[in-house]
UniProtKB/TrEMBL annotation, chains A, B:
Keywords: Lyase, Metal-binding, Oxidoreductase
Enzyme Commission identifier(s): 4.2.1.118
Name the UniProt record assigns to this protein: 3-dehydroshikimate dehydratase
HAMAP family found in the cross-reference section: DSD
Amino acid sequence: MKTSIATVSLSGMLPSKLTAIAAAGFDGFELFENDLLYFDGAPGTVRSMACDLGLEIYLYQPFRDFEGVSAAQLQQNLERARRKFDVMHALGVGTMLVCSNVSPQVIRDDALAIDQLGALAELARQSDVRIAYEALAWGAYVNSYKHAWHLVQAVGSPYLGLGLDSFHTLSIGDDLDMLAQIPGDKLAFMQVADAPVRKMDVLEWSRHYRCLPGQGELDVTGFVATALAAGYCGPLSLEIFNDGFRAAPAELTARDGLRSLRFLESQARDALASAANTEAAGTLAPLPPAPASADLQFLEFAVDANASATLTTWLEKLGFLRMGRHRSKDVTLFQHGRASIILNAEPDSFASAFFMHHGVSLCASAFRIDSPQEAAMRATKLGYALYEGRVGPNERNVPAVLAPDSSLFYLVDELPDAPTLYESDFHLTDFDGPTEAGPIVGVDHVTLSVPGDTLDSWVLFFRAAFGFVAEHSVVLHDPFGQIQSKAIRSRDGTVRIVLNASVDPRTIHSETISAYKGSGLSHVAFRTTDIAFAIRRLEDDGVPMLRIAQSYYNDIAARFNLDDAFVNVLRKHNILYDRDVNGEEFLHAYTEQVDHRFFFELVERRGAYDGYGAPNAAVRLAAQATHRG
Amino acid sequence: MKTSIATVSLSGMLPSKLTAIAAAGFDGFELFENDLLYFDGAPGTVRSMACDLGLEIYLYQPFRDFEGVSAAQLQQNLERARRKFDVMHALGVGTMLVCSNVSPQVIRDDALAIDQLGALAELARQSDVRIAYEALAWGAYVNSYKHAWHLVQAVGSPYLGLGLDSFHTLSIGDDLDMLAQIPGDKLAFMQVADAPVRKMDVLEWSRHYRCLPGQGELDVTGFVATALAAGYCGPLSLEIFNDGFRAAPAELTARDGLRSLRFLESQARDALASAANTEAAGTLAPLPPAPASADLQFLEFAVDANASATLTTWLEKLGFLRMGRHRSKDVTLFQHGRASIILNAEPDSFASAFFMHHGVSLCASAFRIDSPQEAAMRATKLGYALYEGRVGPNERNVPAVLAPDSSLFYLVDELPDAPTLYESDFHLTDFDGPTEAGPIVGVDHVTLSVPGDTLDSWVLFFRAAFGFVAEHSVVLHDPFGQIQSKAIRSRDGTVRIVLNASVDPRTIHSETISAYKGSGLSHVAFRTTDIAFAIRRLEDDGVPMLRIAQSYYNDIAARFNLDDAFVNVLRKHNILYDRDVNGEEFLHAYTEQVDHRFFFELVERRGAYDGYGAPNAAVRLAAQATHRG
């Protein structure tokens, strides 16, 4: 499909917006009228700029409060439309978006609206332009695509079609049954936008919280698939009103925007194919398939000499064994249970550059999947860059995708009867694994602290590049601000990543407590089968656990009606407790901080508990603030 | 009245919260249970800390979902309450807040709720504590103070009173008639919070957007006055859930918090006094009265040699005359019409320190009022610092109040038959004023760019210290983000100040365009009686006006149905146009930027137009972004 974006979705002035749109690879754009108004040049100049950049102008928008008015007002509105049609001719754009009237004075009369839209269609015919009539979710009288379609159908002019917008339909929970029945040639334009589900006034929601398809929680795929099945054959166009995007660099938004459309198109294709609509599916571009399942192969830390010593001590206390050294690099492999951790001390590598900026931090993760080349191709098609590292003789060339913070996600497969990645690349100490099983089973999840203004980019990255699924965001209370937390997992549920972002920039830049980083803390959570047993073992080995305030235990005893002996075990080992609505339990505990931005967690999932102990996050954050001193 | 604040209103850990509360001068606090939970120490330790700081613990809160439950649940809830009462005894706090049940499973039966609250009151009697039962605005069954009072009254126990919260009542638009009738001894506690009016879910509104009394738009004064008239005699306690406060330093929030309570108390006193309730008014502490009227006496810029030359050139082109030099300082007075501008080049003064940080900027403003000493005393009582400058022989000692950014607001009076401030402090060039009247009448308004996280502090400053009134905020669209704009004016409407704050910190730190400052731009708007005439004069004198995009004029011609000749005048002089719902008109134009953060505006108000041309702000911001290059 042709790809398009409304200029209102981007920050900056019109020329730089168009440059960003073209650089991202869109086919064209919707011109938001204010962008023309603020541009100090003639419409013809905009036409030339677009032409020079290879961009088509698909739509001129918005034209407001046209229908359901008095006869005198109609004449003024038609005159206003005529002037816009002149501008459109100068711009070289064929379609104008007309939004349903939002004035409280609107005359609530379908026959009148049909007459007036008919007059507009006739004017459009004379000017050889086309109208896309769109129902705003907060339209004063017409506020659903069904009502708008009723009017458009009644007018019956080829110069008046329906304008679709996924947000306006999905935000009010409207069904898509009628959409499937509308003739494709009557669907004049389709705008797409996603949004997180919020309980708020729909106008405010639309104006400030829209996001790119794949970043939110609306079924944009179902909406688009339905319109395509009905025969829509215009461009797929982003119209995103988002407070963050208004301040973000246009280049980044445009690049993510095109990714979101490619992802959306492939998802719509899959949806149509599953519905056996091969004809409609055939018009859409596929992406190489996302991995059906994924496993966390290893986590890689960038270290200098100090960090290497610190982390090695921590890992040894946590029962990790030094299992190998890389054949050609200063890279060490540690393993415990199914958890593999790599310390990369290689100078002049991507890792060392990463370390310079971030302190002790994850510089790479590896997903074990079935078809790494296919997945890498998918990421490339979505505009994500691949990293090509130096590869020694006989070492494996493992593709890696660059994440929004330039950390790497390696894509690894292991074939039967072939050497494993570790065998290829490492001198292994003891290939048969640790002689004694430790208390850690493997990695449960990884929590990444990301800047607030990149959270949406991260969500799109995991969803689009790897086909991961995202959960509803939760807000965590840090003593110095709020943290938005979004959990992501692989489709099979095996890889779990939690993204934490400070809502207020002051939270991570607080000067109140030196080196305080708020959500700047990342951590790795290890799974255990018996957390109390594990902590006893680890404490014996010198792992310092984060002390939890004693009042917490009085509170959970009362809140969950727990027996004293059990609470005493939790209290003794500083274990936090959560129980879900089905009675499934989660026990977890934290180590003290490894450095100013990193720590470990131990978890025990009982039964089908599926979360991360979010109700306890504030307790943990407060304990960290207390013991940071 | 005793002053109190809920610990949940402040950032940080409990010990630092209490230190901030004591330092600000509160009498006591409400202990939010989570703060105790996160504190790694016994309740007795909190009691000692509070005692050492001279703070009383007025309330333990919140206790949730007590009433309207099954018999079995009631027993659990009573047991839970009993445990809390034990904690309260250890803390030394006598009152517990019980919030109305928010569970969808609540049993909607008054008789049952009365029985169960009666059982709680009986338990409270046995433990010698008191319950304040509060209706949450989103309570599942009980959601108004009227309903809560019906239950409390029916129980009829001295151990069960009504908990009031201004937000819960005002947010749902409830009237106060019944409140006035409740016996004072049944009003167990009163929490106060203000909020901007927002169209959103009341729970979300309450949790994220509350602000200090005086910073929002609810009639908190009327609420408090009614409760006091009814005989409430407990503390006035702030409970502010605010995303910004969660990340702000606790000391600043606490200091503004106490100011807001002093201001609220004095306003409630005035309200009761006007209602001839001298008895209730007599229990409240007054503030020295705010000035009934104010005029802008002068604006003072901090300048170094370069800035002095730049501004002098600009002022001379704008028709200002150099009217005097300060008797003892390197300070120059310029005047044009009723506008006075002072350039302060004094080294080692507050102004020079100010200039170092801000570039060309307003370092002081002077309000001409009737009783400067009284107004200064008022500001002092509210905890605002006064500035005492160096005063030469025979010069006037003018009190000045420090604003949130440490700029000064001088308070000046002029008495008949006494030398004016200018006569006292300046060698005047020409005391009789300019020989020829220029096109500028005086200052219309001043727009201050303030950091987003200080906007609420600024609003409170103007409202509390000077008794100014605030208008509803509007959002302005900058090409690189959004700006929240709040207009403030003196009670008589003469002094007008507009506060602009970038919503997203990236807007003022954008690296896209070098030296781009978003809302970082401040400006002074001069009033004219004929803006086209004024601009012709000023352009002749070399004042460069900001060029407006030509499309703007086509748009307003169509939008307002303006005649061509008029539009041509606007277009020729780059004048922007607005018209209000009553047909009153506003014409305004901007100069090019004086430096990277300052410019001038010229305005002509026709008839009773009362705004600032907000619909044109985006046009101005876009033009500035364009011509900044």
